[in-house]
């Protein structure tokens, strides 16, 4: 395997996407899988228990090929909307932090 393929495969694995199922998986499900994995990995403190449960359920469901049909687009959109909402919270905090620094 070439080096660039290995780098791409490592990136996919870090973002929770199984390489062997990637070509058969719906793009919306893949995007939601990346968002769910990153939220759980990097921003878990911003999530409440229900949101964490949704993300862990989604990631577990999508990882098993036979259960991917259960991870419908509605569930994927919930994950993507949660990611968007968390991103807004993070931006508001970043904006407030930088506003305080500029006042000094």
What does this structure look like?
This protein is mainly alpha-helical. It has one domain (3-103). Helix content is 71%, strand content 0%. The protein has four helices and no strands. It has helices at residues 3-14, 27-42, 49-63, 73-103. α2 (27-42) crosses α3 (49-63), α2 (27-42) packs across α4 (73-103) and α3 packs across α4. The longest helix has 31 residues, at 73-103. The radius of gyration is 16 Å and the shape is globular. The chain starts with a helix and ends with a helix.
Radius of gyration: 16 Å
Number of β-strand runs = 0
Q: How much β-strand is present in the residues?
A: under 5%
What composes the largest sheet?
none
User: How many domains, as an integer?
Assistant: 1
Order of helices and strands: HHHH
Please give the count of helices: 4
| Whole-number mean pLDDT | 84
User: In which range does the helix fraction lie?
Assistant: over 70%
Low-confidence stretches: none
Q: What gross morphology would you assign?
A: globular
Q: Report the end-to-end length measured between terminal Cα atoms.
A: 53 Å
What structural category characterises the helix and strand content?
mainly alpha
